[in-house]
User: Fold this.
Amino acid sequence: MGGITLSITLIIIIITSIISIIAMQSGTLLELLLNKPYRVKHNKEVWRLLTSGFIHGGWLHLIFNMFVLYFFGRNTEVGFAQIFGSQSAVIFILFYLIAIVVSDFPTFLKHKDNPRYGSLGASGATSAVLYSSILMFPAETIYLYGIPIAAPLFAILYIAYTIYMGRRGGDNINHSAHLWGALFGLAFPLAFNPSLGPQFFESIKNLIGF
Assistant:
């Protein structure tokens, strides 16, 4: 009888969920792992830029991010296997960890002198995974509240929505992390396989009838 093989995506989900659940019940751990740009800059607590991606503010926050990661992470793993071959698992892990830091870095620059600001969650990294999946498999259909939307169209609408909400503000959501995570998710595979770009835009042209 063969053993159970876990995908990298599922392993990340398990680790993130365990840490998040423990942190939800431990204010001390939550405070230690939270991304606080002021403490990163003034106390050199640089680990916060990474560890904040493994904690969440509540069950809904955790479930939504892990839901997105579950459904699009496996696609991204398959796409990375086509690009990177036998090294794809290690590169996927590095991609995910770097995405956490990259997506939060603009927020760090903005709030590095604000001692009251803090952020948490895997939203930036899951956005990176989502957009890598869309880039590599643009023919996919995404179901938003049961409504089918072509993946390239969803990519455009989501970035537009993120930019709008980030400028509007007032909802306590770090839309900047979503945006920069999405851009990193597009840029990373493109850097190693530029042909993905023309394929993606060809899908958009077909979508709008050109």
Q: What stands out?
A: The radius of gyration is 18 Å. Residues 59-84 form the longest helix (26 residues). The chain has a mean pLDDT of 87. Residues 152 and 201 are 8 Å apart (CA to CA).
